[in-house]
Amino acid sequence: MRTTITMKQIAEHAQVSLGTVSHVVNGTVPVKKELRQRVLTSIRVLKYQPSQLARGLRRKSTNMLGMVIPDITNPFFPAVVRGVEDVAFEEGYRLVLCNTDNDAAKEKAHLEQLRSYHPAGLLVIPAVESTLSADLRAASERNPVVFIDRCPANWKGDAVLAANEDGAFQATSHLLEAGHTQLAVIAGPSHLTNAIERLAGFRRALLQYRIALPSRYIQEGLFDRDSGYLSAMRLLAMQPRPTGIFAANDLMALGALLAAKELGLRCPKDVSIVGFDNLDFVLLIDPPLTTVSQPGYQLGVTAAQLVLERIRGKEGPGQKVVLPAVLEIRASVATPYNAGRSGSNQPKRSRVVVRGKVAAEGG
After folding, report:
1. Cα separation of 111 and 73, whole Å?
2. How far apart, in Å, are the Cα atoms of 87 and each of 41, 84, 216, 299?
3. Peptide bond into 126 cis (omega under 30)
4. Which residues contact 172 (CB under 8 A, 6 or more apart)?
5. DSSP character for 275?
6. How far is CA 55 from the centre of its chain?
7. Could you tell me whether strands 158-162 and 357-358 are parallel, antiparallel, or unpaired per DSSP bridges?
8. Strands of 290-293's sheet, edge to edge?
9. Minimum mean pLDDT among 12-26, 197-211, 229-243: which range?
10. Cα(322)–Cα(164) distance, rounded to whole angstroms?
11. What is the mean pLDDT of the chain?
């Protein structure tokens, strides 16, 4: 029969007062780091398991952190989740993860369910069609809310983001410095902050180099491979065909590479491609992808630290923490092949079939 461990036994094992154990377990008063660590160590050694339901009803919050992500199959998000979970576990919190499949209705349902469990805080990466801004502003008055990677327009609360505009500026400048003047972009959803910032970085580089960009060379994707493929098929059917493409994330860049291959185009000889994220798979494809590295794990760590500071009583206006993004130069960018020769930048086919649909000629 399993023996129930009490707070008194925890206090004796950690050689601290019963009140100190209570404050650590219930989060009622900040405790010195050394004492807190002793209590947490004793809790793990003695396998103390407080009733989260009872604590939640008594305190109107638990030691649970709720996290909502848009797409668990996107390789970028697990690193963010791991960063959050590592910090949460070290500090005695448990993470409950919900996946929305980029469905706004599912996202709202998950958050409503999470709040019924009285979480100590929420960490949210919004879905592509998220409409939760006003709802979460109200929720943040009860429990801390931190957005990660992207946040709703006009959000004034806490957020941890990458330097999206600067990263996109670096990527586009690299293409321009390689000699590309016929550029295109596969942007993310136009209402998401990270997509807006990456498109702004792309435009800023063109402005600095005094390169004009026809509107048809801006295609909007959904941050997934299929939308990258379809967007690239449209771009590569245009006249003149772009010699360089900046895709606003690596999955769309992968889709662009697949489209180029299907059309018989070589990367980087016929078209150079740059992505954003620096996911593990980009080193394994041919050619290895030049991409902007954003620190997914550190985004999660920083967001978890921020939400825990709020849980422990830190006050003040919302913080916007921006982590650096760095261009990783690999083999998917080269000087345009036969640049300047008449007809060298024309598409190889005048009619392109895109998975059962005919791509528009000339954009």
Report:
1. 20
2. 15, 6, 45, 12
3. no
4. 183, 185, 201, 202, 205, 206, 246, 274
5. E
6. 32
7. unpaired
8. 218-220, 183-187, 244-247, 272-277, 290-293, 326-328
9. 12-26
10. 9
11. 86
Which domains, from first to last, does the chain contain? 7-50 (1.10.260.40), 58-162+296-325 (3.40.50.2300), 164-293+333-358 (3.40.50.2300)
| Residue 32 CA, distance from chain mean position | 33
Name the phi and psi angles at 194, rounded to 5.
Answer: -70, -35
Running DSSP on this structure, what letter comes out for residue 60? Answer: S
| 3-class secondary-structure state, position 179 | coil
Q: What is the Cα–Cα distance from 188 to 209, expressed in whole angstroms?
A: 23
Q: Supply 330's token pair.
A: 């690999």
Residue where the block lists tokens 């998401």: 192
CA triplet 312, 316, 319: central angle to 5 degrees? 95
C-alpha–C-alpha distance, residues 235 and 173, integer Å = 20
What is the Cα gyration radius of the chain? 25
Closest by CA to 323, choosing from 153, 156, 146, 167, is: 167
pTM of the model: 0.77
Could you read off the pLDDT of 99-120 as tens digits, one per residue?
Answer: 999 998 999 899 888 887 889 9
Q: Give residue 245's pLDDT.
A: 98
User: Among candidates 75, 82, 70, which has minimal Cα distance to 250?
Assistant: 75
Task: Please give the single-letter amino acid code of residue 11.
Answer: A
DSSP alpha helices (H): ranges in the chain?
A: 7-14, 18-26, 33-46, 52-59, 76-90, 104-116, 133-139, 164-177, 193-208, 225-236, 250-262, 296-311
Sign of CA dihedral 248, 249, 250, 256: negative
Look at residue 37 and give its three-state secondary structure.
helix
Mind listing the pLDDT tens digit for each residue in 308-347? 999 988 989 999 999 999 999 999 999 997 654 434 444 3
3 state SS of 235 = helix
Cis check for the bond before 347: say yes or no (omega within 30 of 0): no
Residue with tokens 């930048």: 345
Spatial separation of the C-alpha atoms in residues 139 and 110, rounded to whole Å: 14
Q: Look up residue 3 and give its DSSP letter.
A: P
